[in-house]
Amino acid sequence: LAFCRGRVVRVPKGPLIRVLGTEVVIPCNVSDYDGPSEQNFDWEFSRETDFVRIVSTWDSTFTSEEYQKRVSQGDIKLRRSSNDAVELVIRNIQPADQGRYKCSTPSTDATVQGNYDAEVQVKVISDGLSVSGSKARSSMSLKLSEGDSIKLRCSAVTTSPEHTHLHVTWQIKSGSTWRDILSLTHEGKFQPGPGYEERYRNGDIRLDTGANDTYRLSVSQASSVDAGAYRCLVSEWVRGADNSWQKIQEKSVEIASVSIQRTGEYVAISTSNVSVTERDSLDLTCNITTDRSGIFQAEVMWYFSVSPDDTLSDAQILLSVDRDSVVSDSTLISLSHIDRNSYRLLVRDVDVEDSGYYFCQAAIWVPLHNGSWHKVVERTSAPVSVVVTALEPDYEVFLNASKTPKFSDDPTELNCRITNAQDTEANVRFSVSWYYRKRLRSDDVMAEELLAMMDADWTLQLGDRSRERAQNGEIIFFKKAVDTFSLRIQWTSESDRGDYFCVISAWSRHRNNSWVKSKDVISASVSIFWATQDYTLTVEAVKLKPFFVAGHTFEMTCKVSSKNIKTPRYSVLITAEKPLTDQSNPNGTTRIISLNQDSVVRLEDWTDQTRVDGVVLEKVQENEFRYRMYQTQISDAGLYRCVVTAWSPGGGGMWREAVNGLSNPIQIDFQTSGPVFNVSVHSDNPTIYQGELADLLCIVTTDGMALEP
């Protein structure tokens, strides 16, 4: 094998049959060589025995004189396709160019091995191919409607002395390039172009041969994509020496320019904006206008959307009728075919939720050869606005106060009543909302605050202002009667003073059993207010015995009077202000005993254990209290007062502190201006024995004089 290896130069196997006047391309390549990768080539031509030099890739002086003009004009040239291959190109080949062509490669090998040239025979035959269209010299112009059929014809015939085959292709140009529609190849096979395979299988595109070497193109159900220029492209093929097919020439002729007028369709709803009353029927008609003739069927869809700008994907399909006149099912909506071009939509028992935008979409379908249908056009109408007016019940709202407070902590009750109600059948129910508005001293009015509101199912929703008190039972919302809603404040405080109003909402039940608010009526406001005056409390302390000495009973009373306090009760505390010399209470004031508003007595800071029962505080009557201190001592000296607190009834049975009062002081001051005397003990016998009688003498003297014992 090593000895057989060497350079190999190859050209096509001849003879190469080419047509007069066409361009001839003869390839030549070299392999299995040494040296540089890029090889050079020389081409020579011989009609009989001697070879004449034509052109070279490396020697510009290689060309012989008879070829210099054709080479310089570019009619003959070399075209390198790779480092080891070139093509000899001869434009407009003539009979004189028939003969043998030799391709040679100068040696770059270390040793001479293989072949360094190869020859091929070229045979030039006359042009016998003729391609024509209509009898007119120029292509015809066709104006068709969408859905029409296109029928075009061209003739192709050859008188070549060789056994050649024709390849016929119908092409279309809608832009700048030609595209294949359908071909009848030189091997007798039909070949659809890219994008036409399905239409060819469906029989919508056909290529038929006829008498006088004619080739007919038929396109059924033409659409806008079929508009453009049509031409018939014919190529002539011959089998080479290697049994492969070779295209020897190609011709074309433009047959027609086809314009397709799209199927006109106008879709509109027969009415403009519509207003209907709740529970009535909505009647709309979709009208279709088209210039389509022949057999076709319409497909109609009705849509609903809440916005005129919604797309079809966002809209809701109500009903549809297909091209077989089958209508989709619905209970309250019907679709009927009035005539060939009109479709009626009827919506029965409309409610407010049916308000929105209605539009219809219509498509035109035409039958195809294989029994299927093809949609040729589709249009959508402009939306029609439909407003469904609710059947509002007629009623009035009256708000009154059945209980008004005169003092703080008095109850308040408001009644919101529905009056003069009409058209309030079973499909209507009422709910209430309560509002509060605070009064200001100026003309400004604060925004209202929601106290509570009811939903359609009478679920109570509390506002921030009333939530805690309502949960504690201090504010109660209830339905007092069929037509009356009530608000009760158990214990009204000053912060509750202001204006109150209610809103009665009417709710209508829709087809899906949901409740939708149809009307609100606001009541006049009711003012809850009472005049408030400052609480006043006066306490007067009176000493019942103007003079007493140590060991006697101290007694004083406290009389209380008050104003602007509702049913007051009083608690009393007795205090004493001792002299600063009293080290038992360096702060100066001592809380002695107290009595609360429920008449419960309590010792406060009274610490004398020998006189636990030595102080008494009691209620003489509603506004009078008495304090007693038995066996007074010098240490009890000081200023005594009554500290009184007035209480009024609060919410939930509790007492609320109203005001405090302090009485005038009552002084305990023991007398020190009596006689001065001394006391001594004397015994005549200070020393005695156990068991003896002791004789003691108590002597009282004044001014040095002994007094009678």
From TrEMBL:
Coiled coil: none annotated. Gene3D superfamilies: Immunoglobulins. Keywords: Disulfide bond, Immunoglobulin domain, Membrane, Repeat, Signal, Transmembrane, Transmembrane helix. It is found in: Membrane. GO terms for cellular component: membrane. The keyword Transit peptide does not apply. It holds the Pfam family V-set. The keyword Transmembrane helix applies. InterPro entries: Ig-like_dom, Ig-like_dom_sf, Ig-like_fold, Ig_sub, Ig_V-set, IgSF_V-set/TM_domain. Residues 21-113, 146-254, 265-362, 393-523 form the Ig-like domain. This is FPRP regulator. It comes from the Eukaryota. It is a single-pass membrane protein.
